[in-house]
Predict the 3D structure of the following.
Amino acid sequence: MTPVNRTQIIPIGPYHPLQEEPEFFKLHVDGEKVVKLEIEIGYNHRGIEKLAEGLTYDQVPFLVERVCGICSTSHPFACVNAIEDVGGFDIPDRAKYIRTFIGELERIHSHLLWLGLAGHFLGYNTVWMWAWKYREPVLDCFELITGNRNHYAMFKPGGVRRDIEDEDIPTAMRIVAGLERPLLMFAKIAMADPVLQARLKNVGILTYQDCVELGALGPTSRASGVPWDVRKDHPYAAYDMVEWDVVTTENGDVFDKVIVRVLEMLESVKICKQCLEKLREVKDGIDANYKEIPPGEGIGHHEAPRGEVFHYVRSDGSNRPVRYKIRAPSFMNVPTNNRAVVGYTVSDATITLAAIDPCYCCTERTIVVDADNGKQLMGWKELLRLSQEKTRKLMERYKSRMDRVWI
Amino acid sequence: MSLKIKALTKSIWVFHLAASPCNNCDIEILDLLTPRFDIERFGIQLVGSVRHADAILVTGSMNRKARQRLKRVIAQAAKPCFVIAIGNCACSMEMFGKSYNQMECLDNVSEVHAYIAGCPPKPEAMIQGVVALIQAQLAALKK
C-alpha cells in the first residue's frame, strides 16, 4: 500500500485583518505540526527601482521613502549614503548627528510597533495597547522635528532638509528620556512573566548556523548570537562618534528576539540622547550643497530596524541614476521562516512568522509567480484564535505566579 | 435602501484592504484603535471578514496582482457598503502612477464614497473624513 499523504494546507492571507500587508503563507500541516511552508508575495510590487531611474537625485529619496512606511527613514538613509558614495562626498557633522537621531528614533518606533503586534498575536492585547501608547510620544517628536508623523522627508544627498532648532531640543530630550521607564517596564515584564516564558522560549529556534547559511540580518540574527550590525561593522553618519553597544543573545528563539528588540530600544535611547547633546554644540551647517554627481557606482547601507538595508546606484554623470537597486532586510529574513516554523505547532506559527518582523513592502522587488491556491481549512482568524487560546491556557496554569508580575 | 444607509451610519465596522501600499496608511489605521485615538468609543471597529464590514478602507495604489483580489473582495462585501480611499496612493496613485505594474485608479474599479488625502493622512484626518462621509449620507437622506 502506498503511504497516504496526510498533510493539509492552511492558507494565511493574502488579505487578513492583522498584518497590515497583503502576503500569502501556505502552511502544510500534518495534524498540529507544520511540515512545510510556502511563501508567496507580489501583492506589493510597485516597480520602485524602475521609477527611480526616471527621477533626479533630489527626488529619489522621496520615492524610496515610500518603499516602506514603517522604516521610512531607513531607505532614504541608505539611498543618500549610496549617492554620496558615488562622489565620495562628506557631509557636515551636524547633519550626521541629525541623521543618526532620526534613524534611532525610528528604530524605537518600529520596535515598539512590533512589540505591540507581537503582544496582540499572543493574545496579550494589553501589551499591544501599551506599546502603541508609548509609541505616540515618539511620533509627536517626529512631528515636532520634521513636520510629519511618518514619512519625514528629512534626508537629501549632501545633508538633511531641516535643522533641529535649539528650542526644540529640550522637548525632544524630555520625550526620549521619558521612554526609558516604559522600556524597562517592558523588559521586566518579558523577563518575569511565566506565560511569555512558556509560550516563547524554545519556539521558532534559529541556530547560529541557520543564520549564517541563510544570511539572516538584524535582530533576527542578533538573537541567535550573530553580532552583525552595519552601524558597528561599517560605520556611517555619526555611529562612530557616539557610545553604544551591539545587543546579542544566544538562543535564537522568539523570546530572545523580543529581548533583543527591547534592549536595542534602550541602546537607541542612549544614542538619541548623545546626539541631542552634541546638537547643542556642533553647528557647522546641515547641507554640503553638492551640485554635480560624477559618473560611477555607489553603495549605501543602513541598519534598519529589521536588518541591513542595501542600496546600489549607478550614475553616468547626468542628474538621474542609470540603475537603482534595493535590497531590503526582509528579503533575507523571510526565508528563515522555512527553518523557524517547520517542526513546531500551528498555534506557534503566527508568532514565529511575526518574529522576524517581516516587511513585504520593502521586499517586493520582483514579481513572484502565482501558485495554485490550496483548499481553505482554516483562516487567519481561526489561527489567531488558536494562538490566543494557547496563551489563555498557559495563563490559567501559571495563575498563582502571574499575580506577582502584573500588579 | 435609505433605511439601510441610515443604519450604516451608526457604529461603522470597517474592513482594511491593503492594495500594494507602503504600510504607512495601514499603521495609521491601526493607530486609530490604540489608546490615544481609540475610535472604538464611536463604535468603529476593525473586522476580520469583509462580509461583516460596513465600510472598506482601501490603501495603496493597486498593482496588477492586488487588483484582481481587490475586485473580488469588494464584490464579496454585503451591499450597501462604503468604499473609502485612504492616502494619496488610493486617491490618485501619486508617484506610482507611472509604474509598469500599476494599472488603473481605484475609481475605475469601484465606486468611492470618500477620499482622505495625505501621505499618510493623520489619524485626526481619517476621523474627520469618516464624520464628513456620515454627515453627507445623512444630508442626502433628508432631501
Notes: The helical segments of chain B are 2-8, 24-31, 64-76, 87-92, 106-109, 123-142. The longest helix of chain B spans residues 123-142.
